[in-house]
Amino acid sequence: MTTVTVLLVDDHVVVRAGLRALLDSQPDIEVIAEAGTGEEAVDAVSTFRPQLVTMDLALGTGIDGVEAIRRIRQIDRNLPVLVFTTYDTDADVVRAIDAGAIGYLLKDSTPQEIFAAVRGAAAGQSVLSPPVASRLLQQMQRPEEALTPREAELLTLLAKGMTNKELGKALFISEATVKTHLAHIYAKLGVDTRAAAVSVALRRQGIR
What is the pLDDT of residues 84-132, one digit of tens each? Predict the structure, then answer.
């Protein structure tokens, strides 16, 4: 039987203890290290060489989970990182996946869902918590969420790094109108940052 070795990353000791006990109950999963900060997680990857990392997104002081994922992926591009968090907004999902996470699991998942996610992620399979997968699928199926031609045009320019002032000049509209368009775009895409909006738009709208 092949054993999956795991590094747990979470800033709450009790959460780590609970997840360790749960995972160690399985004969084919072994927790070999823990980390309470993003920096500790990066160091632990180099020290212990786990086969899988479970990563919380909010890690208190220091770098957050997304930045930790990026740095871990710089160390080992083939090391799967499974996000294990309470945060389920589309913006959080997009940021984590863009950073290199192979999956996204919510902390209210059942033990069986957690076991399946760990085994699947370790095997190189993309894993999404059922509620997250369901919501993302519903969003992609909603025609009313399609961007208008003007919104798509604005996003194309936004992806080039333009400021609101530069966008206004390029589209001959006021900065206030730019902000209004951006608010509508964020709402349609379910994000709350410029970077996340561009990332989702490129993926769903085919904007280049």
Answer: 999 877 678 878 888 889 889 999 999 999 999 999 999 998 888 877 7
Matching residue, tokens 């969003």: 139
Percent of the chain with pLDDT over 70: 89
How many residues can be counted in the chain? Answer: 208
Give all strands (DSSP E) within the chain, no chain letters: 4-9, 29-35, 52-55, 81-85, 103-106, 127-128
CA dihedral 119, 123, 128, 134 (to 10 degrees): -100
For the chain, the straight-line distance linking the first and the last C-alpha, in angstroms and rounded, comes to 46
CA dist., res. 15 & res. 180, Å (int): 41
Res 130: pLDDT: 78
- Asked whether 90 and 69 are in contact (CB, 8 A), the reply is no
